[in-house]
Structure formats: C-alpha cells, structure tokens
Write a structure and sequence with these properties.
This protein has 361 residues and is mostly helical. The chain is built from 15 helices and 2 strands.
Length: 361
C-alpha cells in the first residue's frame, strides 16, 4: 500500500528508491508492528479487563496457575494481528500472491482461534470448540491456502520437498503436496497452541522461528545468495520476509505484556494464527523440514502430548506427570520462570542448528 505509493514517486524523489530494498522494508515492518502493539497494548489490556474478557484456567493444571493466573485477559492474539496485518499491508508489495496467502492464513486462523476463545469465555471452561470442529476448520482453511498457492505459486518448486544438509536430495510430492502442506499448516498451528501454556513460553520461540524465516525467505528469493548457498531460488519469495518481520515485531511488542508475570495471554487467537502462518511460510520458502528443526520445541511439546495419550490408552499409565511437557517439569518442582527460560535456551540452540542447514550441505 504505502510501498506502492512511495515507489510511484521515485522519479520525482530519488531518495525514495531506498524503499525498493527488501531489507529496508523488512526492518520497517518489524518496527511498525512492534510500535503498534507496544502503543495500544496497555489500553487493549485495560479494555479486556473492564469487559472481563479473561480466559478460564485448566482445572487439571498446576494449582499455582489457578491462583496466580485467574482473571488474566486472553485473546491477546487480536493485539498481535493488529500489528502484523497493517505492517504487512503498508510495507509489502501487494502484487505478490505469497503475501495474500500468508495474510489469509494469519487472519482466518486468527478468527478460528477467536471463536474458540470466545466459547471458552462464554462457557467459563477451558474446552471451547470441540477438537473435531477445530481440526475440521483448520483443514478447510489450509486447503484453501494450498489451492491458492498451487494456482499462483512457482510450480517449478512448489511440489518439491527439499532435505537440509543435502545439495541434491529432492522428493517430488506430486498430488501428495496437498495433504502434506495441510499437515504442515495444521500441525504447526496446533503445535504452537500446545506450547502456549506458560507466560512468554510460546512468544519467544515464535520470534526465533519468524526471525530465522525472515532470513531464509530473503536468501531463497535472492538469486545471488541462493546460488552461493546452493539452495533453490524461488522468485518473489523474498517478499515474505516483510510478513515474517511483522510477526517478529508484533511478538516483540506483545512480549512486553506477556513476559512473566503475563498481563495478557495470546489465547488460541494468537497461537493458531502464528503457528499456521509459520507453517505456510515454510511451505512457500520450501523449508518445511527446517521448520521442524528451528521449531523443535513446538515439535517436542506436541510429541509429548501424543506419547501421553497413546500410553494412557494402551496401558492406562502416563509417561509424563502432565502433558504438554512444560507442565511435567512444573509438577517436578521447577519454577515457571525456570521452565520458560530453559525452553527459550533450547529454542535458541535449535534456531542456530536450523540456520546452519543453509550452509552445511
């Protein structure tokens, strides 16, 4: 929007040529989204508190949560989206189809999460929308996004699956690209949702993953850097860096209020939207496996739930004291801040490993 307007004036004002640089616009996207969230966050929280938009706490969770977290506003994902969407619209090239796919995923999954959060608040319990209905709509929304990608994306690369650490190991998915991509988007969305159980626990890993994919999208969309790193060059993917930058900035602003002790929770509105968006970005950049590495904490949280459910159904015994795994460590006596910070450290290490795949081939 603003990018297109400024570029149209380049002939009259040569200094505006700086807006052609993707790195500059990505930086502006980070700063814009961060400032939006930071500036409106306080009023947003007061509004939610006055209208009692507070999320019910899991009754089977740690007792300390029922004491400390009751009455904390939820649906903070709305605040995050207030930062992501305007920033992307302002600084991205809106003629780029990838941007619209990402905005669709972020907005639609955010609305789905908003409905889920609303039902939790209305019913005054932590169940919300049924698991079946939530999964059903996630699949439908993901399918729409994937079909748009097939129609407007780079067909030469879109249906390929590239393996990190290998130069020429490529698997052509063909028709299986559709279910595979739906699995990535839905899986990523739910993985972030499961991780969002402690103050700031999901926010920082999302920032790290989004920052990593800001760089990945940039090099994938740059013919010089992609050639040097021996990764596939995909035209126009670099523009997705602006969207990733908006996620980084928005989550940084949100972290100001979500850091322990949290003044607001992102809720399903934020976790479903952010997770789905990161999954969509990884598909566009053709680094789906790298997403599993950089977002390994989300994978760990999800696997812990799967193991717990399977074990209990087959043997009647639980592997963990409580799932997801961050609650297991709380039950073992770790302070919440200890769990959060140690999980952040794990996320940093995984992000570095994931970024190393760009060069180690």
């Amino acid at each position: 929007m603003l990018y297109s307007f400024l570029i149209s004036l380049v002939d009259q004002f040569s200094g505006l040529n700086v807006f052609r640089y993707l790195t500059f616009r990505t930086g502006l996207s980070v700063m814009t989204s961060m400032m939006i969230v930071f500036l409106i966050g306080g009023r947003f929280i007061k509004f939610f508190q006055s209208h009692k938009i507070t999320g019910p706490i899991r009754e089977d969770g740690p007792i300390s949560h029922l004491i400390k977290k009751s009455g904390t506003p939820t649906m903070g994902g709305v605040l995050i989206l207030f930062g992501i969407i305007p920033s992307t619209l302002l600084w991205a090239d809106l003629s780029n189809s990838y941007i619209w796919v990402l905005l669709f995923v972020a907005t639609s999954f955010g609305l789905l999460g908003c409905v889920d959060d609303y039902l939790k608040i209305k019913r005054k319990n932590s169940r919300g929308m049924s698991s079946f209905m939530k999964l059903f709509w996630q699949v439908i929304l993901s399918l729409i996004a994937v079909l748009i990608l097939i129609e407007f994306g780079d067909s030469d690369h879109l249906k390929n699956l590239y393996f990190p650490f290998f130069k020429n190991l490529v698997l052509y998915l063909g028709i299986f690209f559709i279910p595979f991509s739906i699995f990535i988007i839905v899986g990523s969305s739910n993985a972030v949702n499961l991780t969002d159980g402690l103050d700031g626990l999901a926010t920082v890993p999302v920032i790290l993953v989004a920052t990593s994919f800001t760089l990945i999208c940039y090099v994938v969309g740059n013919i010089v850097f992609s050639g040097y790193l021996q990764i596939p060059y995909i035209a126009n993917v670099g523009e997705s860096s602006v969207f990733c930058g908006a996620i980084v900035g928005s989550c940084l602003g949100f972290l100001w209020y979500n850091a322990p002790p949290a003044k607001i929770f992102m809720g399903d509105t934020g976790s479903l939207s952010l997770g789905g968006s990161l999954g969509a970005v990884s598909i566009i950049a053709k680094h789906e496996i790298v997403l599993a590495i950089i977002g390994g904490l989300f994978v760990l949280e999800t696997v812990s739930v799967i193991i717990q459910v399977i074990s209990f159904k087959l043997t009647g015994k639980r592997v963990f004291m409580m799932a997801p795994i961050h609650h297991h460590f709380e039950k073992k006596g770790w302070a919440e801040s200890t769990v959060v910070i140690r999980f952040w450290i794990i996320s940093i290490i995984l992000a570095l490993i994931g970024l190393a795949t760009l060069k180690l081939r």
